[in-house]
Amino acid sequence: MRFQSIIIGGGLAGLSAGIKLAEAGRKVAIVSSGQSTLHFFSGSLELLGSDGESDIIHPFDAIDSLNPSHPYSRIGAGKMRTLADEAILFFRKCGLRFVGGGNTNCYHITPFGVIKPSWLSIDDCLTFESPEKFPYKTVGIANISGYLDFYPQFLSLGLGKIGVNCKTMSVTSPQLQALRKSSTEMRAANMARVMTPETVDCIAAYLNGADAAIEAFILPAIFGMNDTVAIDNIRAKTTRPVFFIPTMPTSVPGVRAQIILRSYFKKLGGIYLLGDSVTGGQIANGRMRNITTTNLGSDRLEGDDFILATGSFLSHGIKATPDRIYEPVLNLDVASKQTRTGWFKENFYESQPYMDFGVVADDNFRLSRSGEIISNLYGVGAVLGGCDPITLCCGGGVALFTALHVADMILNNK
Q1: Less Cβ around it within 10 Å: N or C end of the chain?
Q2: Cα(61)–Cα(37) distance, integer angstroms
Q3: In what order do the strands lie in the sheet with 216-220?
Q4: How far apart are CA 235 and CA 307, in angstroms?
Q5: Beta-ladder partners of 339
Q6: pLDDT tens for residues 137-147?
Q7: What pLDDT band is residue 129 in, cutting at 50, 70 and 90?
Q8: Rounded distance, CA 275 to CA 5, Å?
Q9: Pick from 164, 109, 74: which is nearest to 364 by CA?
Q10: Cα distance between residue 39 and residue 252, in whole Å
Q11: Is 324 exposed, middle or buried, given 0-12, 13-18 or 19+ CB atoms closer than 10 A?
């Protein structure tokens, strides 16, 4: 089978590149082994939120001060601003609803109650201009009875630090009560499937009868696995504002984002090979010719351009043994410290060196094997390395912006 572009990895980076290429009329295939890190999505996309010591409010102004190895430095501040405008329209076309996206970061609260800056957030998240300008004095944090992956106490502590009065409560419905027969059923994905109009009515009625001092409610993000209908319904039926905080994985907003992006990609004519893994690739005369996969056996996927979007250690795009760090799909060159003692720092809370590790790429994000650049093989997202996404709060931004940038280069034959 032949395609113009073949992408290895079906998370945010792979889907973003695939959608942009398919929108331009290219014949695109994505090979995805299964779940991606979108299933860990916090509800907010961080572009550049910290310099390692303090919050960054104006992320684009800080790009020029980044290490030259950072993917943003290779893209350049000017191109980053252009891509930022494109990204807002990109998500809107796909059917994802976000707020933010200007030149200034806003703030959100994480599932553990940490207040962090972010660039974009899904529009049902609770976002605010700054910790000093939180919009409510009193909020109600409503958990589902028996649900263990949502932490009202942590949220109360985090919001309490900025002067917010929090009132915790539990809500339920007959359908949710039925899930409590087994603790393994009380998971976000399972509860999202029983958010029928009747369940929404039960929860809304409870919230409407809550303490009149409460100005807004925070609920776990267990509404809307495939679309936003249940979210829109409970907001419409509740007399005070309702916001949602993503839970511990699996993240319902993350699954929903992946479903919506994948559906849009397929609508454009893209081929999404779900549940398949790349087993190798043929390289000749400095170009990638084809790849093989587990499910296709001896049938090869041939392409003009290839993109590696397999992620870092979390998604096994980069792997480690006690004595080496390697890229497992195509045996590409990896930039890392030579000795194991250089991979990490003993203080768990310090920025860890291994977070910088990734495949070797030139300034155009073309990858190499055995020291030779492969002219039509590009890397996007976390597999690139070059930065610590946890310390700098930039993981989602790196995935999105490198994907859009590389798609640009392919379309312009650069």
Answers
A1: C
A2: 28
A3: 165-171, 138-144, 216-220, 242-245
A4: 40
A5: none
A6: 999 999 999 88
A7: very high
A8: 19
A9: 74
A10: 7
A11: exposed
The helix or strand, by DSSP H or E, that contains position 78, with its residue range, turns out to be helix 77-94
- What span, in angstroms and rounded, lies between the C-alpha atoms of 127 and 100? 9
The token duo for 152 is: 């009202």
What is the per-residue DSSP string for 118-141? ESEEETTS-EES-GGG-S-SEEEE
Residue 254 has pLDDT above 70, yes or no: yes
Pick from 79, 184, 310, 158: nearest CA to 71: 79
User: What's the pLDDT band for 177 if we cut at 50, 70, 90?
Assistant: confident
d(C-alpha 83, C-alpha 78), whole Å: 9
Nearest to 363 by CA among 330, 317, 405: 405
Amino acid at 258: Q
Question: Residues near 403 by Cβ (< 8 Å), separated by ≥ 6?
Answer: 12, 13, 14, 16, 17, 20, 307, 309, 380, 381
pLDDT in tens, 332-357: 999 988 788 889 998 988 899 999 99
Find tokens 């929090």 and name the residue: 166
| pLDDT tens digit sequence for 298-344 | 899 999 999 999 999 989 999 999 989 999 999 999 998 878 888 99
